[in-house]
Structure formats: structure tokens, C-alpha cells
Design a protein that fits this description.
This protein is α+β, with helices and mostly antiparallel strands. It has one domain. The protein is 46% helix and 17% strand. It is built from six helices and seven strands; from the N terminus they run ββαααββαβααββ. It has a three-stranded antiparallel β-sheet. A two-stranded antiparallel ribbon has the order 1-2. The longest helix is centred in the middle third of the chain and has 12 residues. It is elongated and about 70 Å long. The mean pLDDT is 87.
Length: 124
Amino acid sequence: MRSEGNTHSYRLDAEKLRATSKGLLSSERMSELVPIQKMEGDAWEHKVIRDFFEGPRLKEIPANRKKCSVVLRWLANLFEPGTRYTEAQVNEIIKRHHPDASALRREMIGEHLLQREHGVYWRV
């Protein structure tokens, strides 16, 4: 900050801001936010989740069917059993983790993790 009479001028130190955000948003720090404990499973499944998630974001949809199933089960745990969801609500929940909500939604239905009828979805 620099004062000139009644005027105060501020300057952003972009380099300090970058350094701070790198520390706060590092993949190690963000990966701590992924609630792996919500998902039951073995160490291999936990490793798959750690490998494919960067914090709460799914980096990519696994091409390997077995790994994809692990990711889909993790996503399915975001939906409460017994609760009915509109397609928009399902998309909103999925988009918090990956932009291709429609592909992941279809995959979860294909894996029988979600069920759909007349535009209403629920966890199986």
C-alpha cells in the first residue's frame, strides 16, 4: 500500500499470490480433501481413487473397466440411499468432480449403481 494524502494505492504481488496458491492448492493438499474413508474397499481401490482424483476433481475417467468401476462406486456414494434426484441434481453433484456428468451418469446406470425412471434417479 502507498498513501498519497487521502488516497491509498494498493499493488498486488502476483508472485506471492502464486506461491501461496500453489502451497494451498497442491495436489498433495487437495488429495487430503477427497473423502476416501467414505468408500469401503481394499488398498488397491484406495490407490485407484488417489491416482485418478486430484483433490475433489476426477482427473480423467479411467479407460480400464475395473478401475472405472472403482471410480463409479466412489461417485455413487455421493448419493444418499432412498433419496430421489432429478437429472439436474445428479448432474450438479457429478459436475463438482468432473465436467462430463452425462457420461458418468450413464456409466453409473450401466453399472447398476443408479437407477432411472421418468427422469428421476436414485441410488441402488
